[in-house]
Design a protein that fits this description.
Strand content: 5-15%
Structural class: mainly alpha
Number of strands: 3
Radius of gyration: 14 Å
Number of domains: 1
Oligomer: single chain
Number of helices: 6
Mean pLDDT: 97
Low-confidence stretches: none
Length: about 140
């Protein structure tokens, strides 16, 4: 399956690919394009759109105070232990004003901003940050 989102990924747009590869499609391919090209490229590539809050056509998106990571969990009926807690951490890091729901989110936001500041490609950001999400998931699974 191909998935597509906006380029210059940070928290939610790293967390969603991690979630997709880990729980939905281990062979998923990800495309990152300018927001103005999302709909056209998604149609041409037959790709599933995610995390484009300014585009109402995108189903896997922010929903109220919740982030796209949570929309994927909901729509794909994912119920693995720890995912709900991890979702709160992602939301806390991704959405300004949601920081109090998970104190770990502040650190995750800093990590995402640091990777963005490194100037590496979106693909490289996924490679380098997936281990961070693996570790956070294990933390969420085993935390009291």
């Amino acid at each position: 399956m191909k998935w597509i989102t906006r380029q210059n990924i940070k928290v939610d747009r790293v967390a969603c690919p991690w979630l997709i590869r880990r729980f939905i499609d281990p062979q998923a391919q990800f495309l990152f394009v300018d927001e103005s090209q999302l709909l056209e490229t998604a149609t041409r590539e037959n790709a599933i759109l995610f995390d484009a809050p300014r585009l109402p056509e995108v189903k896997l998106n922010h929903r109220g105070v919740r982030c796209s990571f949570e929309a994927i969990i909901e729509d794909y009926h994912l119920q693995a232990p720890g995912l709900e807690r991890l979702a709160l951490i992602v939301r806390s890091a991704d959405i300004k004003g949601q920081e109090p729901i998970a104190v770990e989110g502040i650190g995750l936001r800093a990590i995402a901003q640091g990777f963005a500041a490194m100037g590496i490609s979106d693909e490289e950001r996924l490679i380098r940050q997936f281990p961070v999400y693996d570790a956070l998931y294990e933390f969420a699974r085993h935390a009291p």
